[in-house]
Amino acid sequence: MESNKDEALKCLAIAQKHRNAGNYPSAKRFCQKSLTLFSTAEAVKLLEVIEVEIQESAAPSSSSHAAGSSSAEGRTSAAETHPSAAGARQRHGGDSSKAEGKAKANGGPAPEKKRTYTPEHAAVVERVRKCKITEYYEILSLKRDCEEADVKKAYRKLALALHPDKNGAPGADEAFKMVSKAFQVLSDPQKRSAYDQHGSDPESRFSGMSSSSGRGSPAFSRGFGGGGGFEGEMSPEDLFNMFFGGGGGPMNGSPFGGPMFTATFGPGGFRTTRMRTNARQEQPAAEPRSTWVSILPLLLLLAFSLLNALPNLFGTAPTPDPRFAFTPTGRYNVERTTSDMHVKYHVNAAEFSGHPIAAELARNDNKPGPQLRKFEGSIERAYTQDLFAQCQRGLDRKQRQKDQEVGLFGIGTDWEKVRKIDAEPIESCNKLKSLGLLN
Questions:
Q1: How many helices (H) and strands (E) does the chain have?
Q2: How many other CB atoms are there within 10 angstroms of residue 78's CB atom?
Q3: Could you give the C-alpha distances from 90 to 8, 21, 23, 114, 119, in angstroms and in order?
Q4: DSSP readout, 360-408?
Q5: In Å, how far are 99, 280, 281, 300 from 112, measured between CA atoms?
Q6: pLDDT band for position 412 (50/70/90)?
Q7: What DSSP state is assigned to residue 436?
């Protein structure tokens, strides 16, 4: 139907917009809706173009997927065939690829990522593993009279070399734990003193110092104020993260900026514990400058407002225009005419003679100046606005008379009278036409 044509054209425009954006399914849907509302040749043609573009866009995606699969297979085979340039070795079985394919086929988890290592990594692991678990100085390659800074330096070097993410050599995990244990003992002055006296793990129940004893290390007393307790376990990975900035924030009394901890080697393996603190961290004091920065926009706004008000504060207020009327009265007794539209208006003689406009006319030998032109411009605007209002009212009145004469269906209408109503002049409309403001 013709009534649906506009809606059909709107749907066609939306379809074209979606097509330009590359959204072909939406473009096809709106194009079909346009054909349902009102069939046009443009919609039929656009639908054919969209269907062709949908087919063309589907073809490259399938070919690229096939190419990506083949290239991925090529890369996998190349990686398995050729060794890495760095001479790194890989820790995996001969059937790793088969296991991976079998895991994918069964929907199970993929096998672990292959861990690589270099001969240097293997040499570091072998050296540490040859040491006894309580030979902490030998593990870190330190002398007994070394300083605390030397302990930190040695741990930093070995932890980076033995970290499981960097070293995939066999036994690297155990060596990393041994280095962590040696560091936590030698970095605590009290534990180090007990180890130097007994030569055994100061945390062991058979040594002279127990982790549950009432005597805490200075680092514990400084860092936790005597109010802490044991809470869960912490692995060597947590120690590594805290030492290299990956853990929580630094606390007072810690030898390397993190919370203090203890660790033991026992029948259950390598156990580490961390301390829970009740001390509150002090909030940094807000800088006074931040307060000034926050109120700076308000100060700028006040300064801008003050600058705008300065001319009114120190200058004289502008004099209002003289009052006027379009018809003469006892008050408005002096007739004048505007220079552009020649509109007649009346002003009060006393008020006009005392106005700056009168002084401007006297200086210019009765020639209009800027102030008079501005005043008469406002008069002409008021005059034309009044004429437009009167003209509109006259047209509305004539339309009501015609509607009343014609009636609902025009039966028995005196058409001659209707023509007379149309021919009646409207004075305000005629004036607008004479001024060139109405066609």
A1: 17, 8
A2: 9
A3: 66, 49, 47, 6, 12
A4: HHHHTTT---HHHHHHHHHHHHHHHHHHHHHHHHHHHHHHHHHHHHHTT
A5: 11, 42, 41, 62
A6: confident
A7: T
CA gap 434, 248 in Å, rounded: 88
DSSP-derived 3-state class of residue 53: helix
Q: Of residues 203 and 413, which shows the higher confidence score? A: 413
- Lowest model confidence (mean pLDDT) among 142-151, 213-222, 335-344: 213-222
Does 213 score more than 90 pLDDT? no
pLDDT of 72 over the 80 cut: no
The pair of structure tokens assigned to 433 is: 């036409």
User: DSSP letter string over 72-95?
Assistant: HHHHHHHHHHSPPTT--EEE--TT
- Cα 315 to Cα 308: distance, rounded to the nearest angstrom: 12
∠ CA 37-39-43, nearest 5°, is 105
Distance between CA atoms of 403 and 55, rounded to whole angstroms?
62
Q: Please tell me what DSSP assigns to residue 165.
A: T
Alpha-carbon gap, residue 293 to 301, rounded angstroms = 14
Angle between the 24-37 and 5-20 helix axes, to the nearest 10 degrees? 170
CB-based contacts of 207-212 (< 8 A; 24+ apart in sequence):
211/262, 211/264, 211/273
- The confidence score (pLDDT) of residue 8 equals 84
Half-sphere exposure of 233 toward its Cβ, with a 13 Å CA cutoff? 9
CA 68 to each of CA 58, 78, 421: distance values in angstroms, whole numbers, following the listed order: 16, 15, 84
User: What type of residue is 375?
Assistant: F
CA gap 399, 391 in Å, rounded: 12
d(CA 393, CA 428): 10
Distance CA 33, CA 94 (A): 61
CA 350 to chain centre: 68
pLDDT at 81 over 90: no
